[in-house]
Structure formats: structure tokens, C-alpha cells
Specification:
It is a single chain. This protein is α+β, with helices and mostly antiparallel strands. The longest helix is centred in the C-terminal third of the chain and has 25 residues. The protein starts with 17 loop residues before the first helix and ends with a helix.
Length: 731
């Protein structure tokens, strides 16, 4: 086939669903009101560890409108069979209302179902529990980590450290943080016989389907999950959390459709979070800053009932910089908390904060420019896997970033620049995230009116899947963007992988392109074999489609439209199924970036302001520049939060989260986010996937917090190794 002209891909399109969203017409999970819907409110455990000895529901049940109060004492035993879904963790997932044990503060211990939300909310406060409470352990600092750590070893790091002329040792402690997306988690569940329909907030419609099929012991085919719009997620809507089962159980027991929305407070223990870590680094180098050895010893919190070990937290220590000797240990520490989960840039963000801070410390120790230090340690191959990189253009990221940011004007001495009361500093950090890919399918239909419909059971939690897939489809079909509709978020569509890990464009984009290529070829074949077509007898390989018209690539006058072709052939539509299976690759595939930050720190008050940031990214092909910027700028906002504001605080005496609301859990606001800019290196990675992308949504977050932390050091001369960096830590 002739390559299609690319008109939509690369064009700065705004969101195709933008109008629906800003006019309130996009239907989020809570916007679904099936006939007869009733409301469920979850009752949370008031203690973090112990046993429920009795439940008194009489006052709650006496409230007008209350239909049912369900708890472990009266709930049916659910099968809770094995869930083959890929998001399952070692251990046993929380089984709602199946026993009297309390495993964390805020664990769901009952649900009230009522005809109005207000009745349910009020009655939920009237459910009384007797609990035998035990002292919980929720503090990562002193808790033991039983079991065997995950390890990695290359060379002999201990001896290499001993003989290194320069040695540093530091421990970094990034705080627990919560996703805090705008949309609350909601499930609307409706049974018809043994068939279940869910309207759910999810990054993966297959995930609640698999979970509920296992929990209720029904075939997955009986469950339909619909989730066309997601109001932000960042990873917390990838798993099916306990409230989804509670909604389905409440609907089953009341015989009514049930709507269940977690409150903002309940998000802090009803869904996962980014775990707190202790990350100890020892590094050795020669006097020229070339790394000889690095050890990484990590401890991270998890729940007692499931082991959440974070994918991606070890990789950077193995392959980011040339390091002959590496040793890593990673221990998960079971605590009386709910289970953590991936949060944007999972693993890599944590590792980058520690490693990129450590590199900055080494640069300062040796008096070498931080960028130059990284250049001296830039590897030619992936030492962990002993493989070449598909594409790795970090040197260009450094060069373009330094030039654009004005890095050369920097006085290397910390605390050397003042602006009135403000100490000014700049810092940088490297970012990376691996290019994930997974099998996916999409179906494509071209209608007789010359418009196309493309469907795949993927999701759009905010990156703009609707828009970017429309762009890919429009070019592959040779249609204008306005003539293509992309639909997602329904288990009735062909399957797609989890919308996470920055794999959606790589995987679903490739399958959309494949389906559209197949459909275009079908149309071209129909034309060249049709005696009445102006293209009759032409070589299919010479035909392209543009603006809905098939024509010879070199003789544009010879051709006809899809509409004419279908009408003459009495075809209502053409249909195709696209598929994508990741090709085996001998290369190591990652997206990269360099992030630069300038901060001002009030010398008397310790207050930190980010004055400007620049990120330069090597992420392969950029499908949708507007949306790429939305991802990159949004990630900088998130990274400012991680660096300076966000911290889920637990009272370790009773295991309660004390700032489970947006008044006390601080996130950046407009005044915190000025002058944020992102640039992308031109190019594509053809080895990574057919659309040439390396993933963008995660890598853009990864370097932000360490760049800011390094800038704070440069401004003040004070190294803060705990996140967030607060005013107190700088006084
Ligand atoms: Mo992302 S943490 O994979 O949704």
C-alpha cells in the first residue's frame, strides 16, 4: 500500500469531546440514572485493626427511605473466585462483608441503601459497631519487612564502593500521595436476572468485569461495563476497588439499580495511592564523576493482605547511567493500611527522585556541572538487559533543554543568586519511562455517507484518547477529522488493554491504524476491480485516499469518492477488524526527558515558588501536539505538587488519615503554576510500534520533583531528601 498523507496526525487539534465536556453533556458514571435507581453509602471502620463483635442497625433501618443495611453479619457469602485479571496482586484481595476482621482505618464495614442519597448518608451515621481494637502499625519507618527482598546484582558493588575515590550515602523519603482526580469514584449497578450492567469510573472496562465475574461467580459475558468519560484518574481507576463489588451486591440484594459514590474522604482508603518509600543510595565514582558503583536499598509500604510491589522502581538504577557495579534490594513492608496502587509515572518517579537527587549531590561534591555529569555517564547500551536502545536521545534533550532554558548563565555555587528576599536557584533532572505495549483490537466501519466509526474498549482518563485515535483513524482512512467518530469505554467493543502505563497510543493506536489500513485496502481493492470505477485496473499500491476520495497517488485527477464507490456497489458499509500484537524486539525501549526548573525560596519564610519549568522529551512521534502539551504541563503541575505540597498524613496512634480532604491535602493551584513549557524532539521510534510512539503521559511527570528539589538546593544550599519540601524543612 502507498503510505497515506498525514494531515490529522501532528495537527494541533483541540479535544473532539471538548464541547461535550465544557457544556456538561459528557456523561460521567454518576450521571447515569436508571429507572428506579436507589443510593448506597458505605460505612467505614472507625479503627485500623481489630474485630467487629456486634453491629446495631436498628436506628439506621428505622430511618424513612432506608431499604437495607448490609454488613458481614447478614451479607451472603460470595464466591470470590480467582480473578485471572492482570491487576491482581500476591495475597488475597479485600472481600467485602465476608468476615469480622478490620484491616485498615476506613475499611468498608457496612453499606446503607436508601431511596434518596440524603437518607442513606444520614442512616450511615446511625450504624453502630462494637469493635475489639488492636494497636495498628502504620509507620513505615520502624516496621519490619519480613520475607525475602527483590534483588538485583551486577558486578560487586561492595568492593567497588570500597575502592572508589568518591563515596556518598543518602536516604530519600518521598511521602505517600493520593491521586485526587476531580471525579469521585462512582459505580451504578443494575441487575436483570443474572446479567449485570455497570456504569463505572474506570480506566479499563475489562477490569470491573473480570473482578465481578470472579466475586459473584458468573460468566464475564453476563457483565457489561460502560464508561465513556472519566474525570481524571492517574492510575487509581485501573483496578476494581471494593466499592464496585459493594454496589453490585447492594443492587442484587435490593433488586433495584444502585448508585454508589465514594466521598472525597473515602478516596483516601477506598482506592489505592502512591506508597511512601525509604530509598537509600550509596554511590561511588572516580574524581571525574564516572560512576563506579551504586547500591539501592528500598522499603515501601503495602497492606497486610496484598503485596504491592511497584513495577519500574528498580529499572532506572540498572540502566539510566553507565554503572559497572550495581546492587539493589527492594522490601515491601506490610502495614495496617489499604493496598497501594500505581500512580502516574509509577516506580520511575520514586526512583528518579532518589537517583536524580543523588546525581545532583555528586555533581556538587565534585564541582562538576550536573548536566556534564550526566553526559559523562550516558550509556551506549542498556547494561541491565545487555541490549541496544531502540532510540535514546537524552544528549539532545540535555542540549536543547540547556540552550532553551539558559542553563549556561547559571552560577554553580549554591545560594549565590538573590532577588530581594528571594533566593533563586535552578536545577535539572533526567526522566525516563519504559515503552509498554499490549495486544488490542478495534473495529472500523465506513458508512455509505462517507463517515467512519471506530470502536475499541479503551478509555480516556484525560490524555485525549478520543482525539488522538480520531487523528490516527482519519489519516489511515483518508478522511477529514470531522467525518470520523471514535468510541471507547464499553465492554461491548473489541478488547483493549488497561488505559495506563502510557501504552494506549502504542497499543490501541496501532490497532486503530491497522483496522483503518485494512478498511482502506478493502475500498481500494473494490475500486480497482470495479469496471465502472475510474480506478479500474490500477495497481492498488498506487492508490491513496484523501478527503474521502480515492485516487492515483501520481495522477490525482483519476479517482472517486468512498460515497460513489459504495453507492454504485450497493454497499451500506465496509467493515474491518484491526488488531495489534507487540512484536518481539531485541531492543530496550524507553521514553526520555530532561526537566529544568527555576525556583525562588523566601530566605526568611522558607516558602518555595516555582518560577519556570522546561521539559524536553524524547517520546517518539507526537500524534497530537495540543494534547501532548496538556499532558506535559499537567504533569508539571502534578510534579510541583509532589515536590512541594502533597502528603497523605497518617496519625500512627490510630492509623487514621488526618488530611483526607482537599482543604488539608494540598495540591497546586493556578498561582503555583507559572511559565511551564514542554518541547518534543522530532522523530519516531519505528521499532517500538507501527505508530512510532514511545508513550508520553508518564515520562513527563518523572523528572519534575527532583528538578525542583535540585533547584531548591541550588537556591538555598540546603538539601532536602524528604518529599514534600515544606517551609519547615527549609527554616
Ligand atoms: Mo497510570 S499510573 O499507569 O494510570
Amino acid at each position: 500500500m502507498s503510505p497515506q498523507p498525514q494531515a490529522a496526525v501532528g495537527a494541533p487539534l483541540t479535544r473532539v469531546d471538548g464541547r461535550l465536556k465544557v457544556t456538561g453533556q459528557a456523561t460521567y458514571a454518576a450521571d447515569h440514572h436508571p429507572e428506579g435507581v436507589v443510593h448506597a453509602v458505605v460505612v467505614d471502620s472507625p479503627v485500623a485493626r481489630g474485630r467487629i463483635t456486634s453491629v446495631d442497625t436498628s436506628a439506621a433501618e428505622a430511618e424513612p427511605g432506608v431499604l437495607r443495611v448490609i454488613h458481614h453479619g447478614n451479607a451472603p457469602t460470595l464466591p470470590y473466585g480467582p480473578n485471572p485479571g492482570s491487576l491482581n496482586l500476591p495475597g488475597a484481595r479485600l472481600r467485602v462483608f465476608q468476615d469480622d476482621q478490620v484491616r485498615f482505618h476506613g475499611q468498608p464495614v457496612a453499606v446503607v441503601v436508601a431511596t434518596t442519597l440524603e437518607s442513606a448518608q444520614h442512616a450511615a451515621t446511625l450504624v453502630k459497631f462494637d469493635v475489639t481494637a488492636e494497636t495498628p502499625t502504620t509507620d513505615l519507618t520502624d516496621a519490619p519487612a519480613p520475607g525475602t527482598p527483590t534483588t538485583y546484582t551486577r558486578g560487586d558493588a561492595e568492593s567497588a564502593l570500597q575502592s572508589s575515590p568518591v563515596r556518598l550515602e543518602m536516604t530519600y523519603r518521598p511521602a505517600r500521595t493520593h491521586h485526587n482526580a476531580m471525579e469521585l469514584h462512582t459505580t451504578v449497578a443494575q441487575w436483570e436476572g443474572d446479567r449485570l450492567t455497570l456504569w463505572d469510573k474506570t480506566q479499563w472496562v475489562q477490569s470491573p468485569r473480570a473482578e465481578l465475574a470472579a466475586n459473584f461467580g458468573i460468566p464475564a459475558q453476563n457483565i457489561r461495563v460502560i464508561s465513556p468519560y472519566v474525570g481524571g484518574a492517574f492510575g487509581n481507576a485501573a483496578r476494581a476497588w471494593p466499592h464496585i463489588t459493594i454496589a453490585a451486591l447492594a443492587a442484587r440484594l435490593t433488586g433495584r439499580p444502585v448508585k454508589l459514590t465514594l466521598s472525597r474522604e473515602q478516596l483516601y482508603y477506598g482506592v489505592g495511592y502512591r506508597p511512601a518509600y525509604e530509598y537509600r543510595i550509596r554511590l561511588g565514582s572516580d574524581r571525574g564523576g564516572r560512576l563506579t558503583a551504586m547500591t539501592h536499598d528500598l522499603r515501601a509500604e503495602t497492606s497486610r493482605y496484598e503485596t504491592f510491589a511497584e513495577r519500574g522502581v528498580l529499572a532506572p538504577g540498572q540502566m539510566l547511567y553507565t554503572t559497572p557495579h550495581v546492587s539493589q534490594t527492594y522490601r515491601t513492608v506490610p502495614l495496617d493500611v489499604n493496598t497501594p496502587t500505581p500512580m502516574r509515572g509509577p516506580g520511575y518517579s520514586t526512583a528518579a527522585f532518589a537517583i536524580e537527587s543523588a546525581m545532583d549531590e555528586l555533581a556538587h561534591e565534585l564541582g562538576i556541572d550536573p548536566l556534564e555529569l550526566r553526559r559523562r555517564n550516558e550509556p551506549e547500551t542498556d547494561q541491565a538487559a545487555d541490549r541496544p536502545f531502540s532510540t535514546r536521545r537524552l544528549r539532545e534533550c540535555y542540549t536543547v533543554g540547556a540552550r532553551t532554558f539558559g542553563w549556561s548563565r547559571r552560577n554553580p555555587r549554591p545560594r549565590s543568586t538573590r532577588d530581594g528576599d528571594w533566593l533563586i536557584g535552578t536545577g535539572m533532572a533526567t526522566a525516563l519511562y519504559d515503552t509498554l505495549r499490549a495486544p488490542a483490537q478495534a473495529r472500523v466501519r465506513l458508512d455509505a455517507d462517507g463517515t467512519a466509526l471506530v470502536e475499541s474498549a479503551t478509555s480516556d482518563m484525560g490524555p485525549g484518547t478520543y482525539t488522538s485515535m480520531t487523528q490516527v483513524a482519519a489519516d489511515a482512512l483518508g478522511l477529514a477529522v470531522r467525518n470520523v467518530t471514535f468510541r471507547l469505554g464499553d465492554t461491548a467493543f473489541p478488547p483493549a488493554p488497561v488505559h495506563g502505563g502510557s501504552l494506549t497510543m502504542a497499543s490501541v493506536g496501532s490497532t486503530v491504524q491497522d483496522g483503518c489500513d485494512r478498511l482502506r485496502l478493502q475500498a481500494i481493492t473494490l475500486a480497482v476491480e470495479d469496471e465502472d470505477s475510474p480506478l479500474y485496473g490500477a495497481d492498488a499500491a498506487d492508490v491513496v485516499v484523501r478527503g474521502g476520495r480515492l485516487h492515483l497517488k501520481d495522477t490525482p485527477a483519476r479517482g472517486e469518492t468512498y460515497r460513489r464507490l459504495l453507492a454504485r456497489n450497493d454497499r451500506d458499509s465496509l467493515d474491518a477488524l484491526g488488531s495489534y500484537t507487540p512484536a518481539q524486539s531485541r531492543s530496550s525501549m524507553y521514553a526520555y526527558g530532561a526537566v529544568f526548573a527555576e525556583v525562588a525560596v523566601d530566605a526568611r519564610l522558607g516558602m518555595v515558588r516555582v518560577r519556570r519549568m522546561l521539559g524536553v522529551f524524547d517520546a517518539g512521534r507526537i500524534i497530537s501536539p495540543e494534547l501532548a502539551d496538556s499532558q506535559a504541563i499537567g504533569a508539571m503541575v502534578g510534579g510541583i505538587g509532589a515536590a512541594l505540597l502533597e502528603h497523605t498524613v497518617t496519625d500512627h496512634r490510630d492509623g487514621r488519615i488526618v488530611n483526607a480532604d482537599l482543604a488539608d491535602y494540598l495540591v497546586p493551584v493556578n498561582a503555583d503554576t507559572r511559565d511551564l513549557k514542554a518541547l518534543y524532539l522530532d522523530g519516531r521510534d519505528d521499532e517500538a510500534n507501527p505508530v512510532g510512539v514511545k508513550g508520553l503521559g508518564e515520562v513527563v511527570l518523572v523528572g519534575v520533583a527532583p528538578a525542583i528539589a535540585n533547584a531548591v538546593f541550588h537556591a538555598t544550599g540546603r538539601r532536602v531528601r524528604d518529599l514534600p519540601i515544606t517551609a519547615e524543612s527549609l527554616l
